[in-house]
Design goal:
The protein is mainly alpha-helical. The protein has 6 helices and no strands. Helix 2 packs antiparallel against helix 3 and helix 5 runs antiparallel to helix 6.
């Protein structure tokens, strides 16, 4: 009887632990994109707009590819804290999936970041 109670308690704790890890792994892609863009100096409203549009129009896999391309392009950069709209669109072109740069360009245009491509969002 005591072993059965200990087993149920341990199993219950394991389920809670797995659920916690699962929730931690579920990061809102739109918020993650917006936070990353803001870190590069983009305006919060425009960053959120781009994040929302990319999350709505790209799969999680496509977003991950875009994230890896962006990270790779920033390695060895002499100005790592600065990213322009043209940099962002150029990086999206490095993803093998043609839908990614198309959606990035559409999001950039719709969110108003193409008005001055030499400056951050």
């Amino acid at each position: 009887m005591m072993q059965d109670r200990n087993f149920r308690k341990t199993a219950g704790m394991a389920v809670v632990g797995i659920a916690t890890l699962s929730l931690a792994a579920c990061v809102n892609p739109s918020a993650k994109i917006a936070t990353s863009l803001e870190g590069y100096g983009f305006q919060p409203a425009q960053s959120q707009c781009v994040g929302d549009r990319l999350e709505a129009n790209l799969s999680l896999g496509q977003l991950q590819q875009l994230g890896r391309a962006a990270k790779a392009s920033r390695e060895g950069d002499t100005t790592p804290g600065r990213l322009t709209a043209s940099d962002f669109i150029r990086v999206s072109g490095q993803v093998k999936d043609p839908k990614v740069p198309l959606e990035v360009g559409k999001a950039a245009a719709a969110c108003g970041i193409l008005t001055d491509p030499a400056s951050p969002l």
